[in-house]
Amino acid sequence: MILGEFRRLYVIVRVVLSYGLDELIPRMRLTLPLRLGRRLLFWMPAEHSDKVLGERLRLAMQELGPVWIKFGQMLSTRRDLLPPAIADQLAMLQDRVAPFDGMLARQHIEKAMGQPLETWFDDFEPEALASASIAQVHTARLKTNGKEVVIKVIRPDILPLIKADMRLMYRLASLLPHLLPDGRRLRPVEVVLEYEKTLLDELNLLREAANAIQLRRNFENSEMLYIPEVYPDYCSETMMVMERIYGVPVSDMAALEKQGTNLKLLAERGVQVFFTQVFRDSFFHGDMHPGNIFVSFEHPENPQYIGIDCGIVGSLNKEDKRYLAENFIAFFNRDYRKVAELHVDSGWVPPDTNVEDFEFAIRTVCEPIFEKPLAEISFGHVLLNLFNTARRFNMEVQPQLVLLQKTLLYIEGIGRQLYPQLDLWKTAKPFLESWIKDQVGIPAIVRALKEKAPYWAEKLPELPELIYDGFKQHRLLLKSVDKLTTELRVQRVRQGQARFLFGIGATLLLSGTFLLSQGHAMNSFPAWLMAGGIVSWIVGWKRTA
Question: Which residues of this protein are catalytic (predicted)?
C-alpha cells in the first residue's frame, strides 16, 4: 500500500473505534485476533459511549464520507435484517446528511452559470431543503415562468475523498483472491470497478439530467410513477435544475396512513415499476432508497410514486434479461433443473458443471425456504443462500447484475415496510410470464418483421447485385483455397526432402567420423564422406527456405 492508502485506512480504523463500533464484532473464536488487536490499539478509546449504537453507526458512516453513506443507505432498507433502532438511524443518511454552507452553494451556482444568481432565479433559499452524500438541493423560482424549482449542487472537494476510498477498496479487492479460497470467484475487483463507475456517474449532473429525462419519457402518463421535469438549459456537470415536487416520503408511514393511502396497491406498484424498468425499458433507477422516493398527495386510493435523484441507472442486455426472467419463473415454479441449466447456458457457472449435482444443491437450499408462505419469503435471503451454494460450483459474481440485485433489495425492503404481507413472487410472476411470452411468441416475430421491414425494403433492389457479388466472392475464395492448398502441398514436399537430406548428411558425417576414429586418417574417403554430409545439410537447409 502507498502512504496515502495507509493514511486513509488509519482514518477508517480510528473513526470505527472512536464510535465504539468494535462492539459489533461477535465474540467467537474466529474473531479472537480482531478483538485482541482492538486491545492493542488502546490509544484509540471510544469517545461517544453516551450515544446509542444506531446513532454511533450513522455518525461514523457520515464522517467517513459518500462511499460509506451509500452503504448505510442500502442497509437502512433491510428492516427484515436490522433492528428498528439501527434501521431508523441509518434511514437518516438518505436525505439528512449534514449540509454544507448555503453561501458556498450560491457561489458554486454563480460560477457554473457565469452570472449573478438573481439573473436566473428568484426566492433562492440558502438553507438546504435536503442534503445527501453527493449533493444537496436548494429551492428557488425561475424568473422566466415563475415555476418553483430545486437546484442540486455537488458537494465541494468530494472527488479526492471518493478516489481515496476507492483506491483503498481496489487494494483490498486485489488481496481478497489471495486471502479467501473462493475470492477469485467473487470477482472483487470487477465489483469495485462497477461500484466506482456508479459513484463517479453521480458526480456528473448532466448525466443525471439525461437519465431523468429518459425515465420521464418512459413513464409518461403513467399512474404508477412520476419523474419531475428537468430544465436542461440551466444544467451543467456540477448543478442541475428541476421541477419542485410535493409528496409524502415513502418512509413516513404515519403520513401515508393518515391520508388513507392504499398501501397494498402502493407496495405492489413498487414491484411492478421495478420490473417494468428492467424488462420493458432495460433502463432502471439504480438508487431507489426511501430518500429518493415520494408518494403523491393526489389520489391516495390510486397512489403514484414520485422518483428523484436519477444519478445511478442500470441496464441489462437482451441475453441477461431473458436468462434472468426465466430464472425467476423457474424459481417460482420450483423447477430447479431449469435453474441449473440456465446458469450453465448463460455462462454464470463453468460449462463442465455437473447439472444434476447443481440441481440437487439448489433444491437442498430452496425447498426449506418454500415451505413458508410466499409472502414470508425474503428474496434477499434466497439470493444469499444461492450464492453460498454456488461456491461449490465456481459460480462467478456477475458485475452487471450487482446493481440490479441491490435495487431489488431496496424495492423489497420498501415494499415490506409499506405492506408486510407483500407477496413479491405473486406480484412479479404474471409480469415476467407475460414478458417471456412476448419475447419468444408470435408477437415477437411480428415485431421483428416490422423492425426489419424498412431495412429489407431498402436492400431489396440491390438483391440481384448482392447475389452476383456473393457468387463472385465464392469463386475467388475457391481459387484462393486451391492456391493455398497447392502451396501447402509443395511446402510439405520440400520439407520432406529437407528432412531426407538432413538424415543423409547426418549419416555421412557420422560415418566419416567413425572411419577417422578407426585409423583411416591417411585415407581421403572419410573426408569425402564428411564433405558430402555438409553439402547435404546445406541443400536441405535451402529446401526449408
Answer: 287 (proton acceptor)
Backbone angles phi, psi at 138, to 5 degrees: -125, 150
The residue-averaged pLDDT of 129-153 equals: 91
> From CA 250, how far away is CA 263, in angstroms rounded?
10
287 is annotated as an active-site residue: yes
How many Å apart are CA 47 and CA 261, to the nearest integer?
44
Q: Which of 260, 332, 305, 314 is nearest to 414 (CA)?
A: 305
Instruction: Out of 95, 287, 309, 423, pick the active-site residue.
Output: 287
Q: Is 136 annotated as a binding residue?
A: yes
**So where are the chain's domains?**
3-91, 463-544
Q: Is 135 known to sit in a ligand binding site?
A: yes
300 or 348, greater pLDDT: 300
Query: Do residues 219 and 225 make contact, with C-beta atoms less than 8 angstroms apart?
Result: yes
Pick from 107, 100, 113, 94: which is nearest to 231 by CA?
113
For residue 129, say whether it is annotated as part of any ligand binding site: yes
User: Are 176 and 161 spatial neighbours (Cβ–Cβ below 8 Å)?
Assistant: no
Per-residue pLDDT reduced to its tens digit, 356-366: 888 888 888 77
- Condensed to tens digits (0 to 9), the pLDDT of residues 90-111 reads 877 766 677 888 899 999 899 8
Which of these, 369, 383, 265, lies nearest to 327 by C-alpha position?
383
The runs of H, that is alpha helices, within 276-398 are 318-332, 336-346, 355-370, 379-390
